[in-house]
Specification:
4 strands, 18 helices
């Protein structure tokens, strides 16, 4: 009997170990692939000869995430009343709103062919969305929400969260380093097209997205990582900041100023917050002094006709909101968002909404906006009462400030998959912290 019990314990241990090994490998691999889905243009620029392979890999990852959503979403829907799944309802509502908008468009237009991958939307001619727009929306939002659900449900401990952060950062860091070494002349340029490869928001927007998504979360969990992981996460953040500023991103400066100021105001470690602020200011001044040409170009961007009270975003938001009666309930009719796009011609250019909340409202209606805002709340705020370490709380709130200061005033942040990795990891970490707090009480 003792031998049988020993064997059962041994067998159970093997099963648990195998499951643990599985999530340790699969979740970081998932994050790496989904991050690649965002960054594949950078890999094409890095190795143009492999562009066909990179595009095919992008398509495979997109298809896998679409397929994964179906069983994962169904499981969450069946268990939505359980505490583990309760906060995941926004990840079900958003794809539902996308489908509702597509049905609305099909019914009002009488054109079922809009779901075809080869469908051409006349209103979007001249944009990246002229072909297969509604087909792409299904891929994008079912895929992004699949990532949120899978990470939030599957990750078992903080170590796995860190592994996922490192995996995502690695996929972003590799092309940054290679492109800097191969094309150092690109530093200080903001152009959106290099060697016939287009980049939304500019070539170095990858740094802005890296900092706005994973950097503060990595700092929140820094003490749980190995020494190698700690060094890599700090290095990655420094690299993101460097290329973001080198890419002349005003939003990067805003994100740094607001989030770092909040951190120094709230933390009470080591030296007084005034000294910390002064230290950072001196370091930034020293960097900008060494890069005087870069500083002058960046200051010109802050002083041009699109800055301050003259910022085109105010006129842009007002113009889009003036059409609210057309989209507020279930989203924009067939191609209408691009009619608004062409209506808003400022300074000789056409602009999309440049605000993630506004994007959700315009494209998919008020319920999707409500779900998105709750996704932010559940991810950044709901776990605060369970975090024992004050530094963790401060870093996650600083990350929230950085994220909001980016996505609320930019087109960047609406659909990029890295941000939904961030949401999934934050939800997983909040759940882990809650479970640990309950165990301690018991």
């Amino acid at each position: 009997m003792d031998e049988i019990n020993s064997y059962q314990k041994y067998s159970t241990g093997i099963v648990i170990a195998n499951r643990q090994i599985g999530t340790n490998i699969l979740m970081p691999l998932l994050c790496a692939l989904v991050t690649y889905k965002f960054a594949y243009h950078y890999y094409i620029l890095m190795i143009p000869s492999l562009s066909t392979f990179f595009i095919r890999l992008y398509n495979v990852v997109t298809l896998l995430m679409l397929v994964f959503f179906i069983p994962t979403g169904f499981m969450v829907l069946l268990n939505i009343r359980q505490p583990k799944y309760r906060y995941l309802w926004p990840a079900l509502v958003i794809p539902g709103c996308v489908v509702l908008n597509i049905f609305y468009v099909m019914i009002t237009s009488g054109d079922i062919s809009i779901l075809s991958r080869s469908y051409v939307m006349a209103a979007a001619i001249g944009t990246n969305d002229s072909s297969g727009f509604y087909f792409a929306q299904i891929n994008t939002w079912f895929g992004n929400m699949a990532v949120v659900l899978m990470l939030a449900i599957s990750i078992k401990n903080v170590k796995e969260v860190i592994n996922c952060i490192v995996a995502s950062m690695t996929v972003m860091v590799i092309p940054i380093l290679v492109i800097i070494m191969m094309h150092p002349s690109y530093i200080g340029l903001r152009a959106s097209t290099f060697e016939n490869v287009s980049f939304g928001g500019g070539l170095w927007n990858i740094g802005v997205i890296g900092f706005g998504s994973l950097s503060w979360l990595s700092f929140a969990l820094l003490k749980h990582g190995t020494n190698r992981q700690k060094r890599f996460m700090v290095f990655s953040t420094i690299l993101f900041v460097f290329v973001g500023i080198a890419g002349l991103s005003r939003t990067m400066v805003l994100m740094i100023v607001l989030s770092v100021s909040f951190y120094f105001l709230k933390t009470k470690k080591d030296i007084h917050w005034v000294g910390k602020v002064l230290l950072v200011c001196v370091m930034l001044f020293f960097f900008l002094f060494l890069q005087s040409d870069l500083l002058s170009v960046l200051l010109n961007r802050f002083g041009d006709s699109t800055s301050g009270t003259q910022n085109i975003r105010f006129k842009l938001w007002a113009a889009y909101l003036s059409h609210y009666d057309e989209y507020w309930l279930v989203g924009a009719p067939l191609g209408s968002v691009y009619n608004y796009y062409y209506d808003v011609n400022l300074f000789g250019r056409n602009f999309l909404p440049h605000s993630t909340p506004l994007n959700f409202l315009i494209r998919y209606g008020v319920f999707s906006l409500f779900a998105y805002l709750n996704l932010i709340r559940f991810s950044f705020l709901s776990g605060q009462k369970y975090y024992e370490n004050s530094t963790v709380k401060i870093c996650i709130l600083a990350g929230c400030i950085a994220y909001i200061s980016l996505v609320f005033i930019n087109q960047t942040g609406f659909s990029e998959s890295v941000f939904y990795i961030m949401f999934g990891l934050l939800l997983a970490f909040s759940r882990i912290a809650k479970e640990e707090a309950i165990l301690k009480q018991d």
